[in-house]
Design goal:
- The protein is of the alpha/beta class.
- It is built from six helices and twelve strands.
- Helix 2 crosses helix 3.
- The mean pLDDT is 92.
Length: 219
């Protein structure tokens, strides 16, 4: 079963970060754009951490022994290059002991409107029995995310899958609900949910090309 957590249902600072990222005047500042993606990643990392398992332990301090909790699951942070890098970094700021995975998934256009998703590069640890948090700022159709996950599955099957996005379309959520595995825990987290995608499969109103806004236009 796929669970969806939509943070925009409850107004918070996440909504403010998204508003700045969308704004056509503010988003011309690439450093600010990247930092807002990173801050959303940090906030989501904290929220996702509440779903993980912890164990009680004794911690020696200079003045005695304290009882506390430590994370008892191994987390792997995966991202889709290149737009996902600042988002990934936000998660890594919080899950500082996490292993990391990277996938190159991109649209290869047949013509102006039709494209296939191609995966050319994978760098990934063994995922067997671990928690995989797979991040991509924009979930437009959901097909890139599905392909990235299928590619990473060749490195082992995680026990839990968390998919994190800044903005998702309703079409992407419907697609992922139908195409992601239903034999393990899958949760999709998004800071905003938009109603549609256009004929070029870009989210409307969305914010544009996240990779170009973060790092500059590509040829």
């Amino acid at each position: 079963m796929v669970e969806v957590i939509n943070f925009s249902n409850t107004p918070s600072l996440l909504c403010d970060f998204v508003a700045e990222m969308r704004h056509v005047d503010i988003q011309t500042d690439r450093m600010r754009f990247r930092r807002n993606i990173e801050r959303i990643g940090e906030t989501m990392a904290y929220e996702i951490s509440k779903r993980l398992r912890y164990e009680m332990c004794s911690i020696p301090s200079p003045l005695g022994i304290a009882e506390g909790f430590r994370l008892s699951q191994q987390v792997v942070l995966g991202t889709i290059l290149r737009a996902g890098l600042p988002f990934h970094h936000g998660f890594l700021n919080y899950f500082d002991h996490a292993e990391n995975a990277f996938v190159s998934a991109y649209r290869k256009y047949k013509d102006a409107l039709r494209f296939d998703i191609h995966v050319e590069y994978i760098a990934c640890p063994d995922l067997t029995g671990k928690v995989l948090i797979l991040t991509d700022p924009m979930l437009a159709t959901g097909s890139s995310m599905e392909m990235a996950y299928r590619a990473l599955q060749t490195r082992g099957i995680p026990c839990d899958l968390h998919i994190a996005s800044v903005i998702a379309s309703k079409q992407a959520l419907d697609y992922l609900k139908q195409n992601l595995p239903n034999d393990r825990n899958v949760t999709i987290w998004t800071a905003a949910l938009d109603d549609e995608i256009n004929e070029h499969s870009y989210i409307i109103p969305g914010l544009g090309d996240a990779g170009d806004l973060a790092y500059g236009e590509k040829l």
